[in-house]
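Dear colleagues,

As part of the handover before I leave the project, I'm documenting each prediction I ran so the next person doesn't have to rerun anything. This entry is a single chain, and its sequence is reproduced below.
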Amino acid sequence: MPILWAWVTSRPPETQAAVVAQGRKFHYITANLMRQDRLEEIVAEAVEVMGKVDILVNNAGIIRRQDILAFVEKDWDDVIDINQKTVFFLSQAVAKQFVKQGKGGKIINIASMLSFQGGVRVPSYTASKSAVMGLTRALATELAHHHINVNAIAPGYMATDNTTALRADEARNQAILERIPANRWGLPSDLAGPAVFLASSASDYVSGYTLAVDGGWLAR
């Protein structure tokens, strides 16, 4: 099952090793996803190597932290370009391939708690992730008749590179943990089940939904 996974990182040796260990084929494409001029080439290369595309995971994303009164245009544009603009146009390119293949497909966008909330010192990130939830609904509405399911996962506070500074801030870390009923930061492994569900036929009648994986943050 060929998956096109968009992320921001150097060559991912751990991911490659995990895929190969399962007896699956792995192909890595390097591209600057802050620009949209290579998106169709990315899809074409994936199809050339794998034969088709079944799933797109829009996981690429960045964040810029600064007080609103000091926030600069470049930090706004950088975040919007990759978190919002590329999500739409890569989804569009893959959806065209799905239609060409004639068998539908799955698109999974990565949203955020800040798709639901305002956040602090991250205005462009909040704007982009709010847009991801809206785009998920819009794409799902128009693509459903092509048997393309579009949904999103909204991770809660996860122990990743993006949250290193927050976890290092003792006061902020404690305040966050007090708000999470599960009383811990999420792990990447916590997202595996929801991702598999949304990528599989088990979710064929789920469309346009943003699934929060947050340890109960939004429920509180």
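The first strand starts at residue 3 and ends at 6. The helical segments are 13-21, 39-50, 73-101, 123-143, 164-168, 170-179, 192-199.

All the best with the project,
I.
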